[in-house]
Amino acid sequence: MRKFILNYLIPRIGQYLMVIFVGVTLTFIIPRLSPNDPVETQVSQMMMSGSHVSPEEIEHLREALTEMYGLSGSPWEQYLAFWGRLLRGDLGPSLSTFPTPVSTLLGRAMPWTFGLLLTAVLISWVIGNVLGAIASYHEGNPAIRLVDILSQAVRPIPYYIMALVLLVVFAYYIPIFPFSGAYPPGMHVELSWSFAMTVIRHSILPALSLILIGLGGWFIGMKSLTSNIISEDYVVYAENAGLRQNTILYQYVMRNALLPQITGLALQLGLIFSGALIMEVVFGYPGMGLLTLQAVMANDYTLIMGITLLSIVGVATSVLILDFIYPLFDPRVRHQ
Amino acid sequence: MSENEKLLDVQNVMVSFHVGGWIGGGRLAAVNNVSFALEAAKPEIFTLAGESGSGKTTLARLLLHDLDPTTGKILFEGRDLATIKKRKDVMEFMRKVQPVFQNPFDTFSPLSHVEDYLFDTAVNFGLAPNRRSAAPVVDEALHQVGLSLDEVSQRYPHELSGGQIQRVSVARALIPQPRLILADEPVSMVDASLRMSIVNLFRKLRDEQEVSVIYITHDLATAYYISDRIAIMLRGSVVESGSVEAVLDRPRHPYTQLLQESVPKPAAADREQWAKEIKLGALEITEYRQVGCKYASRCPHVMDICRTADPPDLEVDGRMVKCYLYTNDAKQGVERSAHLEDYKTI
Amino acid sequence: MLTVIRDLLKYDGRFRVAFVFLLMIFSLAVLSVVSPHDPGATFKVPADVPPSLSRPFGTNSRGQDLFWWMAFAVRNSLLLGLVTAIVSRVIAIFVGLTSGYRGGTIDRVLMSINDSFVVLPVLPILILLSFLFQGRLNLMSLAIILGLFGWPWDARLIRAQVLSLKERAFTRTSVYSGASPFRTSMKEHFPFVLPIVFATTINNMLWAIGFEVTLSVLGLSDVTIPTIGTAIYWANQHQALVAGIWWWLGAPIIVAIVLFLGLYLLFSSLNEYIDPRTRLRRIGA
Amino acid sequence: MTLLQVEDLRAYYRTEVYGISRSVRAVDGVSLVLNHNEIYGIAGESSCGKTTLIKVISGTIKPPLRVESGSVRYNFKAFDVDMLNIDEDDLRLNVRWKEISYVMQGSMSVLNPVRKIIRTFEDIVKTHQGLPDKKLFLEHTRTHVRTLGLPADVLNLYPHQLSGGMRQRVAIALATVFHPSLIIADEPTTALDVVVQRGVLHMLKAIQEQSANTVLLVTHDLAVHANVADRVGIMYAGRIVEEAPTRIIFNEPRHPYTQHLIQSLPVIGDKSPKASLSGAPPSLANPPSGCRFHPRCPMAMEICLTETPEMIRLTPQHRVACHLMTGARA
After folding, report:
1. Which pLDDT does position C282 carry in this prediction?
2. How far is CA A124 from CA A177, A265, A280, in A?
3. How far apart are CA C258 and CA C264, in angstroms?
4. Other CB atoms closer than 10 Å to residue B203's CB: what's the count?
5. Rounded to 5 degrees, what are φ and ψ at B243?
6. Closest Cα in chain A to D157
7. Is A256 in Cβ contact with D123 (below 8 Å)?
8. How many helical (H) and strand (E) elements, i.e. helices and strands, does chain A have?
9. Is C196 or B242 the better-scoring residue by pLDDT?
10. Contact at 8 Å (CB) between A312 and A274?
11. What is the mean pLDDT of each run of 10 residues along chain B (346 residues)?
């Protein structure tokens, strides 16, 4: 057990901190490389909208903004201060909906994204893997061949195009699903059966696009993994022992092929998360993706910073959780 | 100086690896206080024999200068291998010491023609100024192993048999005209009908080319057939060494005795001895960790002292044995108990 | 080369589809050279004309012939994909080979950074970056930036391959043949790494072109440059779907799907063909 | 009492990659009989077809392997089976493991790495017998493992926690849960050290003696056959070239290939020079005409180049396929 903690858990936690360190540092450096001074951009924007601003007021505003962006002091001091605010959970006020704190906006959007992602990832991962494992055992089956061809066709399509096609087909030409949002505008958010049904109906298209692309990927991955595992000695042995095909398929083939697929999930989370953001933009789903679009439109620099940082921490944490779950499936990691 | 007369001189070499976690792990001696030497004047075939996990492969890596010992020294022609660092020195060392590997089908890249490696060796070690003029050198080396350049030219490894590749591999090693060839299980993956051709080749090299060979193997029968001297390894230590006839015909260490007796004899006449019941060893790692003699947990003659300290190297009957059974104390102990028996009968 | 293409055309259905799709895409890209219209020019042709034989993709509300506009868009998107792939390949090969061949501390440090980049959600970071550059991001800079984020997956693959090759006896044979480490790397390892580089190039192009679409749709790239992404951006800006000009959105979507499927099928077909195991079976091992 | 009768069996691999089609004639006219209560050894070099022969005998024929002709018939105690025309379910439920079990080459990897050993026992028992009483099953399995001289603790371990020798002994324990009529052991000790090999073979032999069943022992190592097998068949390039009781094979080999193999075996205590055959085992994709051994045979005659030698019965127990024998008889 101690060895397991030392050799497995501690390095994972180290890697987790490393991801956050790299991510946060990038987020800190990028604005400072930009040719545009965010303070000046903000000031000129205010000057264009507000007509009567005195030079003193502008100077005052400039100082306040410099302080707020953490741009005062040497780069090193700025960097430390950046971490300090981050650790306190202080992401500053949103500029477009001043003075609402960025964290409040994020808190509102996060559950939507989280719910959508979790559902879509679970469904696509589970179904993709089951179908992929079955595929290697029933290669000639026409249904499986169809899934195979569809997977190959869907897999490479970028999230945005996929979402757009689904939107055009199922909300525009055959309007069986609502066009946009998670619930009709004006509807009250409440915990009721009918509200839940509305949300689910609204979530189907965004979830479906995520699921379809993910499913294709997991299917193809699992298919090639199982086709290798099928010739492993322990599978040939189990066949020789006359075990039922389902036992072999689930306990021998799939059980072992799942291990790399769990690792694959951890490694792809960043990509999948990015996909979810795009889905939300297309479907006007009120999660972090839509928030990103609004922030871009409204030139809300602090909000974009907040979204970026939360994404990094969120994805890294999910990966860490997966890393912690992994040993439950692989005894070799448990007793090394 | 006596060292100058030695081709290879291995002096109290030890290699330890760190095992376990960052904290709380331990060190294991994969090679433990091993010494032996090859004479420069008299080429010979020296066998390092042992089962998997005996440390023979680690020792092979040491001798090829792939790895430096944790303590101890290896001298080749009087020069400490640890001082060979510069590319020029490494090349000079490799010119004189060449390896032959175990798996013929992995010795050459499956995507390359086998003769590429022979030409490379000839050019890199300065036996020919360029590829074109290297052909006679390569052909000559191939002739020494009973092949010709025409036979292997433009062939991929999979187009040749294991025996053929292994001979090409020996030919490659011969190109720089080495003084020592280190062959790590060179026949264990070669078919039975071709095995002897490789084994005989090493004999021929010793007799005709004056090349010394270190033959690393778990196969005592081929070891007996070709080698002059043998060292039996167990969990990193040499437990018995001497002339192959002395060690294998009349083994003294209980482990060598077990090993020798466990080799199945290819004759249907005498099955009894092999069929005697035996006790199998514990997990490798526990035997490595064992204090004292590593064979103590399995040895039928085990004494208390065996579990407390490493047995000394003893000269017994014309060979070295690392065993307490042959110390004076033990002999006396045996005599004393015999003596007591005498008293009882009186 | 020609026989390889002939073999693949004959025996691999995926390759046939990929071949036809990519032929269409490349022809379109090449046609941009003879375009009668400048992609930036507007109102040269009647606006909002649906697709017809003379105007296969129709025209848009800005009076541009979508066929010729898409020709430029495809060319630019492909160019972006290629530049990104080259930049990220250079980093991936360097990191992968170094990490794999050197091992030890260098390997641990490089892989720790590498894995951090694998996990990082790239989109928010790129949004932040593009946002700060505010449309000053031309196609080349975008391609290079994408390249700087697109290498870690492939570096990992290359490293894994080199690690296993390093343990193979033929690496040691090469060393004891007196070959320098560089030559050993090139002669013994590169032929095995090459297929990975080749396959991931295509994959990386897909990734880069997809990302460009996303950023452009959000209006974060230079929308005056015709690309598949900016084509969708302009259609959205003019609410093409609401206005019933479906072909404005249809053209980039169809071109994108053909391009992506073509590249992906080429990737999976070549991947199998190039795989050392299949390669060995082919030479009769 | 015959257990298995194989007649003129031919099984080929047919593959096609990017238009290059190949057929490998791995088993090409093999006839043999296995009796109840014996250890039959098959010896041969790499790619002589011995693994393919086992695949057909054990009924695990998967493309690209195809049986072209011949028959494989079993007479089990309770019923007979035609292996080449058996219903898949019948084979799986009634024959596999109950009548024929298998100890595979590469003992290191035959056990599912993510399951405890006991779970593999459970899978097998559940499939063939059902598992009405789990406690009883545990007790039976523990006893079974202990009678074979293994500690019962191994059942609760994962494969990676066992040494190679231990894994192979577990594999043998698994193969004998139902006391099958035939145990096929394919290179069971190839990767093991001599001492462990000795222990594993002792165990296999003891089991055979106790349950008086049949063991088909396949290994390239003639010395193993000398110590374990009752009868030995020598395979070369897809065919059996000689077959006799072990003592006769080693003392009076008649086929030049067998003679060579036995003479060239190194023995501790013998340093006399031993010769090696010229050439290499032929490719089964393109085997030589006539007697397949003729290009390497020191005694090859003209007839050997063109005509395949028939199997001759020298004594009721000793069969050889060599033109020298036909000459000798004529």
Report:
1. 60
2. 20, 11, 18
3. 10
4. 16
5. -65, 145
6. A331
7. no
8. 15, 0
9. B242
10. no
11. 74 82 63 92 94 87 91 93 92 95 90 92 93 92 91 88 91 95 91 87 92 94 94 93 94 93 82 78 62 86 87 90 84 48 37
Q: C195 — phi, psi (to 5°)?
A: -55, -40
If we measure between CA atoms, which residue out of B57, B104, B96, B46 comes closest to residue B75? B96
Give the pLDDT confidence score for residue C138 in this predicted structure. Answer: 84
b/e burial code for range A135-163 (CB count within 10 A of at least 16 → b): bbbeeeeeebeebbeebbbbbbbbbbbbb
CA–CA separation, D132 vs D138, rounded Å? 12
Residue in C with minimal Cα distance to A18: C116
Subunit contact B169:C173, Cβ cutoff 8 A: yes
3-state secondary structure of A36: coil
Q: Structure tokens of B140?
A: 């000559």
Residue A85 within any structural domain of the chain = no
Quick one: tokens of D305? Answer: 């180049």
Please state the three-class secondary structure of C155-194 as a single string: HHHHHHHHHHHHHCHHHHHHHHCCCCHHHHHHHHHHHHHH
Poorest-pLDDT segment among A115-119, A243-247, B284-288: B284-288
d(CA C204, CA C149): 10
Distance from CA of C139 to the nearest CA of A (A): 17
- Contacts of A177 by beta carbon, 8 Å cutoff, 6+ apart: A170, A171, A201, A202, A204, A205
D82 phi and psi angles, rounded to 5 deg: -100, 105
CB < 8 Å to D276, chain B: 193-197, 200
Q: Using an 8 Å Cβ cutoff, are A283 and A180 in contact?
A: yes
In the numeric block, which tokens belong to residue A116? 């959508």
Q: Which of B45, B107, B40 is nearest to B76 (CA)?
A: B40
Q: Does A335 touch chain B (CB under 8 A)?
A: no
Measure the CA–CA gap between D124 and C88, rounded to whole angstroms: 51
Q: How many angstroms separate the Cα of B92 from the Cα of each of B76, B84, B88, B120, C169? A: 11, 9, 6, 16, 21
State whether residue A7 sits within 8 Å of chain B by CB.
yes
CA proximity to D242, closest of D322, D141, D304? D322
Pick the residue of B155, B158, B161, B201 with the most D CBs within 10 A to test the interface with D by mutation. Answer: B161
In Å, what is the CA distance from D284 to each residue of B41, B163, B190, C172, D26?
Answer: 48, 17, 18, 32, 6
Q: What are the chain C neighbours of B112 within 8 Å (beta carbons)? A: 170, 187-188, 191
Total domains, chain A: 1
Could C179 and B120 be called an inter-chain contact, meaning their C-beta atoms sit closer than 8 Å? Answer: yes
**Distance separating alpha carbons of residues D203 and B260, to the nearest angstrom:** 20
Q: Which residues of A touch C128 (CB under 8 A)?
A: 27, 30-31, 304-305, 308
Sorting pLDDT into bands at 50, 70 and 90, what band is D130? confident
Q: What is the pTM of this model?
A: 0.83
How far is C129 from A57, CA to CA, in rounded Å?
Answer: 30
CATH number for the domain spanning A172: value is 1.10.3720.10
Q: How far apart are CA C70 and CA C55, in angstroms?
A: 12
* A280 in a structural domain: yes
Query: Tens digits of per-residue pLDDT, D170-202?
Result: 998 999 999 999 999 998 888 788 888 898 899
Considering only alpha carbons, which residue of chain A is nearest residue D174?
A241
Sign of the alpha-carbon dihedral angle for B239, B243, B246, B248:
positive
A120 within some domain: yes
**Coil vs helix vs strand at B198:** helix
Determine contact: C185 vs chain B, CB below 8 A. Answer: no
C-contacting residues in D 16-55 (Cβ below 8 Å): 17-20, 22
CA B107 to chain centroid, in Å, comes to 19
Query: Which residues constitute the domain of residue A221?
Result: 111-287
Residue A161 lies in a domain: yes
Contacts of C276 in chain B (CB under 8 A): 110-111
